[in-house]
UniProtKB/TrEMBL annotation:
GO terms for cellular component: membrane. The chain crosses the membrane at residues 6-24, 45-62, 68-86, 98-121. InterPro entries: DoxX (IPR032808). This is Uncharacterized protein. Keywords: Membrane, Transmembrane, Transmembrane helix. It is found in: Membrane. It holds the Pfam family DoxX_2. The lineage of its organism: Bacteria, Bacillati, Actinomycetota, Actinomycetes, Micrococcales. It is a multi-pass membrane protein. It comes from the Bacteria. The keyword Transmembrane helix applies. It comes from Luteimicrobium xylanilyticum.
C-alpha cells in the first residue's frame, strides 16, 4: 500500500513556468534578449532553447502518468539550468536575471526532480 502522497504540483508548476518561458522566447522581451546576449549565447541558436523547454514540458506532463519520464524530464531541466547558471558565471553576467530567473528555475527543477524521483522510489519499494 502506498502511504506517500502523489505530489504532482512541482512538475505541473515547472511545466507551466517552462511553457510560459518558451512562449515568451518566441518573441523575446528585453529581459530575455539581454540575458541571452549577456551570456554570449548566439542568436542563431535561440530557437534550440525553445525546443528544449517544450520537450521538457511534454516530458513533465506525460510524466504525470509515467513517473520514470517525469524523473528524466526533471533531470533534464536541472541540467539545463545548471548549464545556464555556469554560462552566467563564466560570462560574469550576474544580474537579477541570474539570481532570480536562472537560480529560481534551477531550484524549482531540483524540487520537481526530488519529488518525482522519490515517487518512483516509493513505487519500486512496494
Amino acid at each position: 500500500m502506498n502511504h506517500a502522497p502523489d505530489v504532482w504540483w512541482p512538475a505541473v508548476l515547472l511545466a507551466a513556468a517552462l511553457l510560459s518561458d518558451a512562449l515568451m522566447s518566441l518573441r523575446p522581451p528585453a529581459f530575455i534578449r539581454d540575458c541571452l546576449t549577456g551570456v554570449g549565447f548566439p542568436r542563431d541558436w535561440w530557437w534550440v532553447l525553445i525546443v528544449i523547454k517544450l520537450a521538457a514540458v511534454a516530458g513533465l506532463l506525460v510524466g504525470l502518468s509515467t513517473p520514470g519520464l517525469a524523473v528524466a524530464a526533471s533531470a533534464g531541466a536541472v541540467l539545463y539550468f545548471l548549464v545556464a547558471a555556469a554560462s552566467h558565471v563564466r560570462a560574469r553576467f550576474l544580474t537579477s536575471a541570474f539570481w532570480v530567473n536562472c537560480l529560481g528555475m534551477l531550484a524549482l527543477s531540483v524540487l520537481a526532480l526530488i519529488v518525482s524521483a522519490s515517487h518512483v522510489l516509493t513505487l519500486s519499494i512496494e
